[in-house]
Amino acid sequence: MHTKISFSVLTIILLGAIVAAGALSLNSGAADIPVLQGFADIWQGEQSLAATILGQIRMPRLVLAIIVGATLGMAGAAMQGLLRNPLADPGVLGVTSGAAFGAVCVLYFGAAAAAWYWLPSAAIIGALLSLVMVYLLAGLHSSMLALILAGVAMSAITGALIAVALNFAPSLYAMQEIIFWLMGSLVNRHWDHVHIALPLAVIGWLLILSRSRFLDALSLGEESTRSLGFNNHRERGILLFGIAISVGACVAVSGSIGFIGLIVPHLLRPFVGYRPGRLMFASALGGALLLILADILVRQFDSARELKLGVVTSLLGGPFFLLLILKTRSRWA
Amino acid sequence: MLQVKKPVTWLMGFLFSIGTCGVHAQTAPQRIASMNICIDQLLWDLVAHERMVSISYLTASPMWSPIAEQVRGIPTNYGLAEEIVPLSPDLILAGEFDAASAVELLNRLGNTVTRLPLPRKLSDINEQIIQLGDLVGEGKKAREMAQQISAQVAELQAANAHHEPMTAFWYSSNGVVIGDGTLEHELMQLAGLRNLAAERGMYGFNQLDLELLLSAKPQILIIETSNAEGFSLAREYLAHPALENAGFKLVRLPTGLSGCATSVLGDVAIALKQELAK
Amino acid sequence: MMTSTITLTANAQSISLSAKQVSLARDGNQILHNADLHIQAGELVGLIGPNGAGKSSLLRVMAGLLDADSGQVQLSTADQPPQLLANISGRERAQVLAYLPQQETPAWPLQVEHLVGLGRAPWHKPMSGKSARDKQAIEHALAITELQPLRQRIVTTLSGGELQRTLLARVFAGEPKIILADEPIAALDPYHQLHVMELLAEHAHQGGAVLTALHDLSLAARFCSRLILLQNGKIVADGQPIEVLTTENLEKVYGISAYVDCREEGVVIIPRKRVI
């Protein structure tokens, strides 16, 4: 069950895979353009077709895939460490849809235009409320069953709220766009979206990663952790805040993409010796990698009818989730 | 012989003119009900407003109708027979696809409903305006309107007749490009533009990947702008930064062709002519 | 709330932990009632009493994990005057005082080594890996608990005794002076029970202090230099085992009669009959 591989080696492998996947991603797209020439054009400031497509369409999409993937992977690992439960994931527990609700409220009713930070702030607040609700419902001492039920409840509630908000939105297209908010997509995203998501995501990452030691100690249990000198409430609060900030900022620009936070930590856990602290960092890399690959896959299909990114991750993640439930069944209730 | 014929023809002529005057005076509907927002907008321009006894609820909604403020006070309907019948209208109008069950019911009750088809070609638009004008007894005014539209369209054509045809896309919400068989396509042809969507074999409305759009290197990109609408991701497609730096000319037109084409066609044609002239 | 009486000792090595007039009530029940307790260096003190006497709660209060309604807990270390436990930062407290809870199973299948290493948390500097002292402390902990052959094993594959030793090793890894343990030998076989008690005794012998809640009266009597008998939140007796385990106390508090004997190895006590 434990695989003997040093943490540095794992990190290097994942980084290398990300670079390779990134190169592949820049090569994927409906148009056939000379990628290297495009880079040269960008470097020289020339406005060629390749430069525009590469610089304005493919690059921001890749960067966003990395940011969002890393956030979701890290958030999943953090939630699993915090709740001591391998089934936790920001999508499954309704945190991403809570963020989407916040985003929808601000975007479709005109408030987002006032300043760049209204959109991500609303999404962050949505994520934080969902997170706190789940935490209150499931808590630390409750069973796995309680956690899944809390997640189901939150997902249902926030999904319905999104539908209601879109229904009353002034725009004619709003109702159809619910698919974007519930499934997520990186199509047609550009550098503005990166500027919205990146600073807040990075802040969230720092808050989360700074709690690595706490999560490691939490393996022993609540009381032991406190006896080791940690202020559990404060650590937990910072962690939840960090998750909300990073997840909120990402969902605001990409919709709620699910299951990355479930799959990636589970796959990487044996490689980090099951240590929650290291898992968060590794899952960030793994999440970025997975999302880049999924986005490449999405672009292989007929671009006239876009296959939403969240559909791909759900097709992968849904069965995965089922398998995980079956595997951990003995720990229920 | 002549002496006998003259009075007869005069009498016939006199009787005939009295008869037709009578026909005109009797058959022009005074209580017009409509279940369609586009027909409402046309009626607003054609008839005296007191003759409109019922309009579609959409016409009174600012989100959907440009004349929402002006039509306040006129009873609205949701396309239900029971809203129409009590008003005793002498002309009921509906669009091609409106309220099938209401229309059927009204017909059965003896109130015939006249359906106006959706315009699919530019020529349909003038035909419809004239048809509606005749129905409501404002044939002359309708013909004037149609004449004006034809003139505006002809201006568009004339302005660009001597140009080398330029390649263009008509880019709409959700990344949709408009191909052959549409009003937009006809306008583009009249304006002397080569519709790249049609040249790719696209018919109607199809989504086109942004990369492919850029790769086709159109010289002109037509985009519809709207002030009234709120945010939507569909409209975000038109704001992608890649469109700004791509080297083609952006032409911004008022929206509406996909809504009530009959009412805006003239404006759109003028705007297109002006934009292309820049 | 009474004013505190400060316990000072001249010995530079000494540490002590005192609870003064500690009271605690929850849901209308009085769990602790004016408990006065004091442990110091070199002592292995057993906290005994029937189920529900309040042993766990008292340990938690003394570990600083539970706030008493009234009364104080004071900690005195070699280089500091006695301080209220509440005024010491969590980290500083954790460097001196370790708590071993009753039944906390590890959430993840960690390696024994790693789990033991978690005990070094109070000493970690942020943004740094394991220091030489960390490694040394972990090695020492593994050595005294005889876990070296098991260091790479996954904790979920360990037997009850092995897991308990691992958890104890985690405590030792933190190099605490004072250890508070709640029923550390409850689910262990006799061999491992003796082993754990020996480890605790050795810790006290080396200058540390141990306060442990126990059910096994025999082992408590044998290994502990002092016993504290708790009943319904009140301390009923506090002294040497032979003084505490009187027939009267056993009958009054436990409701049993037992065979008590003083041998060379220590006090032997065997419950005989229930006294209705």
Instruction: Give the total of domains of chain A.
Output: 1
**What's the mean pLDDT score of chain A?**
90
The first-level CATH class name of the domain at 16-104 and 177-274 in chain C? Alpha Beta
Question: What distance separates the N and C termini of chain A?
Answer: 25 Å
Low-confidence stretches of chain C: 1-12
CATH superfamily of chain A: ABC transporter involved in vitamin B12 uptake, BtuC
**Helix/strand-derived class of chain C?**
alpha/beta
Number of helices of chain A: 14
The CATH superfamily of the domain at 16-104 and 177-274 in chain C turns out to be P-loop containing nucleotide triphosphate hydrolases
Query: Any idea of the CATH class of chain A?
Result: Mainly Alpha
Shape of chain C: globular
The greatest inter-chain interface is formed by: A-B, 34 and 29 residues
Describe the structure.
The complex is a heterotrimer of chains A (333), B (278) and C (276). With 333 residues, chain A is mostly helical. Chain A is 71% helix and 0% strand. Chain A has one domain: ABC transporter involved in vitamin B12 uptake, BtuC (Orthogonal Bundle), CATH 1.10.3470.10. Chain A is globular and about 60 Å long. Chain B is an alpha/beta fold. Chain B has helices at 2-27, 37-46, 81-84, 100-108, 122-135, 139-160, 183-190, 196-199, 210-215, 233-236, 241-244, 261-277; strands at residues 32-34, 52-56, 76-77, 91-95, 113-116, 166-172, 176-178, 193-195, 205-207, 220-225, 249-254. In chain B, the strands form two sheets. In chain B, strands 6, 7, 8, 9, 10 and 11 form a six-stranded mixed sheet that branches. Residues 19-25 of chain B have low confidence and may be disordered. Chain C is α/β, with parallel strands linked by helices. Chain C has a six-stranded mixed sheet, with helices on both faces. The longest helix of chain C is centred in the last third of the chain and has 16 residues, at 190-205. Residues 1-12 of chain C have low confidence and may be disordered. The interface between A and B is medium-sized, with 34 and 29 residues.
